[in-house]
Every structure is written in C-alpha cells, then in structure tokens.
User: Which sequence fits this backbone?
C-alpha cells in the first residue's frame, strides 16, 4: 500500500491533505468518519472482519468489491441501520467527528440524522406527495412551519437537480415519477435533514444509463457540502465519481487508496485481478 | 401428442369451472332467497315497531338499535386493542414475543363463539354486583369485543407485513423515531387495516350464540347498558324458530337488512380507502 493508503487504513492522526487537483471542492478536508476494527455478523455468519478505515470530509469515497463482500453491511453499520436486522450484531467502533456512534449514551436516531442514506432501490413514500417526501424527515421530527418546509423542499430538490422537473407537480405522489427521478427524490429527502455524511448503497443499480449519469454528476457536486460514501458494483462509476476507492473482499478491506492510483497501479494482486475483470 | 395435451388442458379448465360454480352456488342461493323472501316482509311498520312475538305488528326497530349499540361497544373494546396488538406483532415484537402473541391470536380466533359467551355469562352475567348483574347489553358488547380483538389483531399485523421493509428503512435512515415511522407504515397499510376492522365488525355483527347468553333479547328499546337488549341476530333466531308464518317472514326481512348492511359497509369502505392517506 502507498503511504497515503496506509495512513487512511491505519486510522492514525487523521488530518488528510488532498493532493489531487480538485476544482469542484474548495473545502479543506479532515477525517470525518473513522471505522476501527469493525466486525459484523448476521446470525452466525460473519460479514465483516476487522475493517479499519477513515473517510475524509468533502470527498467521495467509493467502496467496490464482488457481491457478498460486505460493502453494503459496512455502510449500514455507519448509520446504525445494521442493528435493526434481527440477529445482527457487531463489534468495534465507528467515530463520527471523533465521537463513537456506538457509545452507551448515543441515540441511534441522532446518528441517523447526521448520516443520511440512499438505498439501492428508490424508496419514496408512495402515500406522500413529492413535496412531503422531501420534507418527510423534518415533518416526522415534528417541524410544522409550512413556509420553512416549502423552502427546505425547494432547496433540497434544487440540490438534487430535480426541482425543474417536478416544480409544477409537487403535490403528485412520490411514486408517480420515473425511477431516476425517484432516486433523486430520495437523495433530496436525505439532504433535507442536513446530514454531514451521505451514504449511497448502489444508488444507480436500478437505473438506466441516462439516469445514472445524472446521479453521478450530482454525487460529484454533493462533496462541496457533504462527505459521500458510495457503494458500487460498477468500477467505471467509482473511477468517475470517487476521490478515494476501497476494495473489499470476503468481509476484509483489501486495499484503500486514491482512486487514480488504485485503478492505475493497484498494490495488491487481488485488487488487480478484480479491477481487470478476472473475477467478481 | 399435442392434441392430448390440449385435451388435458381443456379438462382442467372445465374442472375448475365446475368447482367455481359449486363454490358460488350456495352464496348465490343465499343472496337470492334472502332477497326474495326478505323483500316480502318489508314495510314501514317493520322498521317502526319493536320485536314482538304476539300479534301481527312486530318489527326490527329495537333490534337495529341493539345491534348498533352492542357492535359499537364491542368495537370500542376490540378495535383499539386489536390494532395496537397487531402493531406490536408486526412492528415491535422481538421475533419470539411477536410469535407468541401471534400464536395466541390465532388460537383466540379459533375459539367457538359459544365458549366466549359462556365465559362472559359466568363472569359478567352471574357474578357482577347487584345493579350490573344479569343479562345485559353491556355483557353482549364485551363478549363480541373479546371476539373482535384477535381478528383485528391478525388482520392488522398481516396488513402491516405487506408494507415493504424498504419504507421502514427509509424512515429509520432519516432519523425518524420508531413510533412516527410506525404511523407512516400504518398510513401505507390503512386500506388493509380498515378492511380487517370492517370484516371483523361484520363478523361479530352476525354473531348469535354469545348474545343468547348475554344480551338475551328484549321487546323494548335500549333501557341502559345494564338491561337486556334485542339485536338483529337474536330477532332472527327468535322469529325463525317461532313456527308462526308471520314471524318467520319477519326473520327473512331482518336477514335481508343484516345482509345489505354488511354488504353496504363493505362497498363504502372500499371506495373510501382507495384514496391516498397520510397521517403526518
């Protein structure tokens, strides 16, 4: 591994200074999320074994690897969704801005407000309008101020590049728009609660290439304000959107580096075989 | 070979059609007989007079009132208890406790109604202190309420289970508190839950056995919760077994009214629940 990757993987002293020429992101970056010795199980089956890595703020990090390698489970541990599955358990710790999100005093609901998530299949609330879908997180947290909700809905939809397409039909059902629009609606819904981190679990796998391209453009702009962790099956997608890429295999983190180095000069034989399509 | 396959195919289609006719025949004949015989009994006096086994002037006025009140009390007990218990089974119960509640509800649904009747008879009818003891509308409502709880609980948990898990994860990932998320899930299952409540209400409105042991029947209108009360099913039972042609005809009339009431509620609820519903 390169020194950069070693630093990222070892989780020591997490002030990362980005070396790459990055025009879209002006914010200084630091380690926002730090995974330490994470093991996770579903029932007797161990899914993650000793995963340690750091995620830099205002950067897009892609997690790649073959099906079943644990990449979805990893992001589901980061917003404490993993524990909602019956018989799921985990050990290790995950720090958000230096504080353990699995600490005894921590309310998982607060963690999930700070770490948003977009799922594989678009899942808007079908019984709510487009506008109500966007502000669902706020309304369900008790916000009633109609004017504020309208403002939040507009700005979140604009951030998700969806406003122009739906501004005339905000009261239509959230399920009435196309799959790609639904997924951007779900991104807007996640952004409306102003999280610090946005987890995306294969957000394009149910979408056609045009819709995928729109989401990818969106992901690149999102890092101005958010830290994005995106799970993907698609290596081209990782190379298009991610600053850093992590390769996982059989529940272990195999390699973690800047995306360009990872794809051009992988350090591990396993990584090279995967990215050249020899397996997976 | 092909001809034989076609023949076998035709045979099975014919076979299922015959079975369909056999299944629908009893239903059609019930509706036909009840309508033809029931319509003959209908006139103004049938609706304005109370139950009477003498003369030729009896009617269903107090029976309608009694069924309405007894079912109202039963639903006041059965609907909230049943819905909350169904919500527990589907949304909260750990696998083990959920299964136990679910199993108990299944057993309770299968308890013959006369057994529920005898339980209420030996407790409320025989053992309450003085002014409350005896055959009462209250005891009838409680007996039907006990029957309604497990039916509503089962249909509610079934309806909630049909809501995709992706919506639960969507609310959880937004940092929504569990009870608010449950309201979202309820809104998505509302048509199923309402249908279940309706079916349960229709089912208990048609019960006779427990009422024979509790509400007993009466020739007077509502005299208070702790007095005997006539109901539609008691009216049908008493008149049909009287042997007097006029009274038997009245039993058909009451059957017709009971039938169209149940059908009517069914249709209305179907129309109403087709609309999009949201609680938040």
Assistant:
């Amino acid at each position: 591994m390169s020194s950069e990757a070693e630093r990222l993987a070892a989780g020591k002293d997490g002030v990362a200074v980005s070396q790459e020429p990055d025009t879209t992101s002006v914010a200084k970056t630091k380690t926002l999320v730090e995974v330490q010795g994470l093991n996770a199980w579903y029932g007797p089956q161990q899914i993650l074994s000793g995963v340690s890595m750091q995620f830099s703020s205002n950067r897009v990090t892609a997690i790649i690897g073959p099906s079943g390698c644990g990449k979805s489970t990893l992001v589901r541990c980061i917003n404490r969704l993993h524990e909602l599955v019956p018989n799921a358990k985990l050990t290790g710790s995950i720090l958000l801005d230096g504080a353990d999100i699995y600490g005894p005093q921590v309310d998982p609901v607060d963690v999930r407000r700070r770490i948003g998530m977009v799922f594989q299949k678009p899942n808007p609330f079908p019984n709510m309008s487009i506008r109500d879908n966007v502000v669902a997180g706020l309304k369900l947290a008790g916000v009633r101020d109609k004017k504020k909700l309208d403002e939040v809905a507009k700005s979140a939809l604009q951030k998700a590049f969806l406003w122009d397409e739906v501004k005339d039909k905000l009261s239509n059902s959230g399920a009435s728009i196309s799959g790609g629009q639904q997924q951007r609606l779900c991104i807007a819904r996640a952004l409306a609660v102003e999280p610090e981190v946005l987890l995306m679990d294969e957000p394009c796998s149910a979408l056609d290439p045009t819709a995928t391209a729109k989401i990818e453009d969106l992901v690149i702009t999102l890092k101005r304000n958010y830290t994005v962790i995106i799970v993907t099956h698609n290596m081209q997608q990782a190379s298009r959107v991610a600053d850093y890429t992590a390769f996982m295999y059989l529940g272990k983190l195999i390699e973690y580096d800047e995306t360009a180095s990872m794809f051009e000069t992988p350090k591990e034989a396993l990584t090279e075989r995967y990215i050249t399509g020899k397996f997976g | 070979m092909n001809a034989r396959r076609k023949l076998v195919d035709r045979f099975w289609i014919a076979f299922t059609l015959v079975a369909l006719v056999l299944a629908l025949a009893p239903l059609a004949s019930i509706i036909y007989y009840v309508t033809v015989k029931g319509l003959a009994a209908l006139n103004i006096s049938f609706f304005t007079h109370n139950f009477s086994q003498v003369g030729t002037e009896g009617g269903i006025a107090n029976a309608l009132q009694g069924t309405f009140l007894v079912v109202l009390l039963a639903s006041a007990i059965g609907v909230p208890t049943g819905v909350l218990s169904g919500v527990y089974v589907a949304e909260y119960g750990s696998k083990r406790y959920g299964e136990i509640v679910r199993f108990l509800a299944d057993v309770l649904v299968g308890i013959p109604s006369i057994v529920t009747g005898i339980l209420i008879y030996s407790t409320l009818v025989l053992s309450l202190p003085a002014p409350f003891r005896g055959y009462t509308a209250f005891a009838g409502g409680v007996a039907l309420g006990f029957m309604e709880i497990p039916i509503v609980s089962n249909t509610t948990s079934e309806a909630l289970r049909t809501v995709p898990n992706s919506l639960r994860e969507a609310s959880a990932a937004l940092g929504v508190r569990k009870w608010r998320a449950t309201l979202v899930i309820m809104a998505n299952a509302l048509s199923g839950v309402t249908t279940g409540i309706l079916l349960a209400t229709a089912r208990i409105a048609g019960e006779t056995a427990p009422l024979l042991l509790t509400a007993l029947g009466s020739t007077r209108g509502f005299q208070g919760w702790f007095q005997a009360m006539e109901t539609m099913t008691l009216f049908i039972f008493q008149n049909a077994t009287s042997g007097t042609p006029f009274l038997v005809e009245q039993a058909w009339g009451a059957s017709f009214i009971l039938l169209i009431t149940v059908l009517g509620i069914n249709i209305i609820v179907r129309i109403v629940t087709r609309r999009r519903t949201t609680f938040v």
About this structure: Chain A has a mean pLDDT of 89. The beta strands of chain A are 31-42, 45-56, 60-64, 88-96, 99-100, 115-118, 197-201, 227-231, 244-249, 252-258.
